[in-house]
Amino acid sequence: MSTSFYLSFCLQPFFVKHQDRNGCPIDFRFVAHLLPETVKVLQWRTTYVKHMMYLIRNRIGSGLVLLSLAMDVITDNLIYHFTHNLRLLVTLDLEDRPRSSPQSHNDFSNHGLQLLATCSCLTNLSVVRRREHVPATFRMVNDFGMFLLVEDYKNLESVKLGGFSRVTDAGFASILLFCTQLRKFEVINSFFLSDLAFYDLRNTSSSLVDVRLPSCSLLTSKAAQSIALWTDITDSSLRALGCGNAPIDRCLCDIITDLCIKNCFYITDASIEALASDYGAGKRKRPLRGSISAIAVD
What we know:
It holds the Pfam family DUF7885. InterPro entries: FBXL15_LRR (IPR057207), Leu-rich_rpt_Cys-con_subtyp (IPR006553), LRR_dom_sf (IPR032675). This is F-box/LRR-repeat protein 15-like leucin rich repeat domain-containing protein. The chain is α/β, with parallel strands linked by helices. It is built from 9 helices and 8 strands. Strands 1-2-3-4-5-6-7-8 form an 8-stranded parallel β-sheet, covered by helices on one side. Mean pLDDT is 76; it is low at 1-11, 244-255 and 278-298.
């Protein structure tokens, strides 16, 4: 197999997605010397953590602002290299798919979250562990790690967390309470996230516009009610209900008989049409006129 590259010395974005015939990442260290230091956006899909640390130490410039990686395993050592070499990071998107359960000394832990808090420019954070090969989770991270993350760093605008099996309501609620600029919040496959994480949040400031909680089996309609009281309901929320895309709606939509949307000023006719139809909303949007307090859903 031969692979050729043409790289400009003024190149800013760089994207690599390649695997060998066995689905394993290709070692791209042989192009490291060609990677311009001007790169500001790097998306590297399917790599090994040891290869990425090699690139950070030897080639990637400190001006990188967006880094998106999919690798074998996320470790504290990797986070250490990020925080000490990539001071201008604004977006960090990490995803791993371990082929075996990581050892405690070579995994992502509370210490790694504490290191992330030193990235003063970071506003978008995504850390996800997929269970594609083995049912591995971030078992070295608990609520204390979340407390360390938000204690000194409250400027996060987007947070996506997946595979944090030992984080409970207290840890997730700390992000919601202290990150006042948070606009997007997503938790995937949490064992302990329940309605309590969203209890009595009305007295806190909120900029949230997007909340996604797939595969969080402890959540009920009470969580949806708390989120609705805390944030602005928009067309996209009702579309999700109407199309069956919301995680909670699978057990609720068949039994809904009344839905109050009073004082939901961002709802338009289009979302009402989507809620009543399996085919989604139409293209036309008109502001709702009058005061609609309830609709019946069959």
